[in-house]
Design brief:
alpha/beta; binds (2S,3S)-3-hydroxy-2-methylbutanoyl-COA
Length: about 700
């Protein structure tokens, strides 16, 4: 199949990239573009050139799958230089998305036009990279440093309307891109407009060149806390070159630094997550042709923290929700929290006032569960107790339409047992959201033993529609995420008893890259949640339970593992807790010792990896990449480490196996005995990634 075509519209050459699904700039495309532009340039009958694409989007970037292979010529930098130096007008006609190298190639064109819904961006930072084909040098020259820095450091695309206002594009068009490109470039010729080479533009940078110190001020506004990330500071350095480095030398430096980042572990990890996220939505055995059911109306049972956040996720996607609560005051409280959240977003400028009204308008509250009867999908988000859930499902089964899907938001409980209380187990599954449910992107979809294929396909489609990342898992206690979290929590408690303090354990994990450590996270979520769970299971966590017995539930009681000033979320160490911990060690006859950060990290992460291996053995997760996506999107595992299983492959399975075996021997704790899969992969000198990442 020809991936680059060219046809003539009178004296205009129209070059069309046709490389589905997203017209990525793979080697063949670059070769095709090089030859097409060369021939159009030398053809005397050609007065101007239009670059556009076939399919659903303009170029969505370089082909990321090529990044693990040796680079092949022509590079995109060379191609952009070739285009920029053409002595005839070249216009890019964009639609859908113009991202990364796809936007950079348009910056080498002399003019840019776009369809109204086009999104334009440089998302490389999300792959642990920065624009490597001239974007760091050309974009600031076109839109100014402030906006260029915002686009490159956030990686977020901007809409066509904003791009026009910034001068990133010259016009917004309707209709066919190729035709619009031809019309536009005919105007350029008719009006004898000079060719605008972005590399020559200076007006947006000259003030900054006169006052280079202002660069730091601009940077300060855009730099976020980049916990261990390499790409943001590298991007800043490259942007600074626009001020004092000749552009061709800056292009070379950009390329060199880009290739360094591309070969680095962080980008490899973030690229892994990019593809693992897309792979996770493909379920072995679920054919692509399985038709999802149509979901027009949703009901959510429970207006608490989870019920409220889940309802917002649907309203944000324009889907009406009936929220059912047992008592009017609880309902009003729940709706009040939702409205307050929307108003806070509007106050921050993240939402317009009429968006708030529109979304609140999609939410209908009731204390009558019968109101859920018209819903296509009902999501139960009530108290995490089996009896309560069974009662709700029993009621729903009787009143809901026969084709209605019933989902539970349980974080731990047996979905099959819940399904068995209904006459429609084939229409029951778990949809496990993460708190705050309107923010966290992960949706763990729990497939019951009787869940029908179209019910599963529907849940995956719904997840994407509400902007979530779906990962399908099997039924076991705590599914994938919470089951591994439990392995970490047990070890965290042990580390306290053996000599560490909460801030030391949390410090080690935040240095590793997590947004917060286990104890700060416990205080945020509420220590009583885990306490109730442990009591129901008859197990004890010495320190956490003692804190709860003293009414220390975390932020909601202004004290937990840490002390919190009223209204503050920043905990500070509490000498009382330290005394309590030391006393517990003494009571349990454990001699306290200093514990290094390295040991803390290994003791928290390796048991999780071991549990992850067991989860793969049992088929609760399909791929190790699924586990990585769950931990990155649901639990804050640093994406530049690729998730726990990818991280394990990075540091070596043999080393992990040995550390776990030592721990098992030292503690007698059978949980640490290396999982069979781990031992097998070490014996085969294989990795989780190689063994477990392609859909079967
Ligand atoms: N390279 C290779 N494959 C890609 C790809 C890419 N750039 N983008 C998407 N795919 C595959 C994806 O894996 C999936 O495959 C299919 O296309 C559909 O994607 C030099 C270095 C464009 C917004 O970061 O954000 O340019 O699973 O499911 O939801 O400076 O894809 O079907 O087998 O995501 O409609 C910069 C990445 C690259 C954009 C469409 N570009 N892509 O979303 O479809 S670095 C990006 C996206 C770069 C230069 C640098 C999204 C999308 P499969 P999809 P979608």
């Amino acid at each position: 199949m020809t991936v680059v075509g060219m046809h003539r519209d009178g004296d205009i050459a129209v070059i069309v990239v046709d490389n589905p699904p997203v017209n990525a700039l793979k080697h063949e495309v670059r070769l095709g573009l090089r030859d097409a532009f060369a021939s159009a340039n030398t053809d005397k009958a050609v007065a101007a050139i239009v670059l556009t694409c076939a399919g659903r989007t303009f170029i969505a970037g370089a082909d990321i799958t090529e990044f693990d292979k040796p680079p092949q010529s022509p590079s995109l930098i060379d191609l952009n230089a070739q285009i920029e130096n053409i002595a005839k007008p070249v216009v890019a006609a964009m639609f859908g998305t113009a991202l990364g190298g796809g936007l950079e190639i348009t910056l080498a064109c002399h003019f840019r036009i776009a369809a109204p819904t086009t999104r334009l961006g440089l998302p490389e930072i999300k792959l642990g990279l920065f624009p490597g084909a001239g974007g760091t040098q050309r974009l600031p020259r076109l839109v100014g440093m402030d906006k260029a820095m915002a686009m490159i450091l956030s990686g977020d695309p901007i809409p066509a309307k904003e791009a026009l206002a910034l001068g990133l594009i010259d016009e917004i068009f309707d209709g066919d891109p190729a035709a619009a490109g031809v019309t536009f470039v005919r105007k350029v010729i008719a009006e004898k407009r000079p060719l605008r080479r972005v590399r020559d533009l200076d007006d947006k940078l000259k003030d900054l060149r006169a006052r280079p110190d202002k660069f730091n001020e601009i940077a300060a506004a855009h730099v976020k806390r980049a916990r261990g990330l390499h790409a943001p500071s590298a991007a800043l350095e490259a942007l600074r070159w626009t001020l004092d480095v000749p552009i061709d030398e800056a292009f070379d430096r950009e390329r060199k630094k880009f290739m360094e980042l591309r070969a680095g572990d962080q980008s490899k990890a973030q690229r892994h997550i990019f593809f693992a996220e897309r792979e996770a939505a493909k379920v072995p055995g679920l054919s692509k042709d399985t038709q999802p059911r149509e979901i027009k109306r949703v009901a959510v049972i429970g207006a608490g923290t989870m019920g409220g956040g889940i309802s917002m996720s649907f309203a944000n996607a324009g889907i009406p929700v009936t929220i059912v609560e047992t008592a009017a005051d609880a309902l009003q409280r729940g709706l009040g929290v939702i409205e307050k959240n929307y108003k806070t977003s509007a106050a921050r400028g993240a939402l317009r006032e009429d968006d708030v009204t529109k979304r609140m308008g999609l939410l209908k509250g009731t204390t009558d569960i019968a109101a859920a009867k018209d819903a296509d999908l009902v999501i139960e988000a009530v108290f995490e107790e089996m009896a309560v859930k069974k009662d709700v499902f029993g009621k729903l089964d009787k009143l809901a339409r026969a084709d209605t899907i019933l989902a539970t938001n349980t974080s731990y409980l047996d979905v099959n047992e819940i399904a068995a209380t209904t006459g429609r187990p084939q229409s029951v599954l778990g949809m496990h959201f993460f708190s705050p449910a309107n923010v966290m992107r992960l949706l763990e979809i729990v497939r019951g033993e009787k869940t029908a294929p179209d019910v599963l396909a529907t849940a995956i489609a719904v997840a994407r529609r509400i902007g979530k990342v779906p990962v399908v898992v099997g039924v076991c206690h705590g599914f994938v995420g919470n089951r591994m979290l439990r392995a970490r929590s047990i070890e965290a408690e042990k580390l306290l008893l053996e000599g560490a303090l909460p801030h030391e354990v949390d410090g080690a994990l935040t240095e590793f890259g997590f947004p917060m450590g286990p104890f700060a996270m416990g205080d945020l979520a509420g220590l009583d949640v885990g306490w109730r769970m442990r009591k129901a299971q008859g197990i004890r966590a010495e320190i956490a339970d003692t804190l709860c017995e003293q009414g220390r539930f975390g932020q909601k009681t202004s004290k937990g593992f840490y002390l919190y000033e009223p209204g503050s979320r920043a905990g500070r160490p509490d000498p009382e807790v330290e005394q309590l911990i030391v006393a517990a060690s003494k009571r349990l006859g454990i001699a306290r010792r200093p514990i290094e950060r390295k040991e803390i990290v290994e003791r928290l992460i390796f048991p999780m990896i071991n549990e992850g291996a067991r989860i793969l053995e049992e088929g609760i997760a399909q791929r190790s990449g699924d586990i990585d996506v769950i931990w990155v999107y649901g639990y804050g595992f640093p994406n530049w480490r690729g998730g726990p299983m990818f991280y394990a492959d990075t540091i070596g399975l043999a080393y992990i196996r040995d550390r776990l075996a030592e721990l098992a021997k030292k503690t007698g704790d059978k949980r640490h005995e290396p999982a069979a899969l781990l031992t097998q992969l070490v014996a085969e000198n294989a990795t989780f990634g190689a063994a477990h990442n392609k859909a079967a």
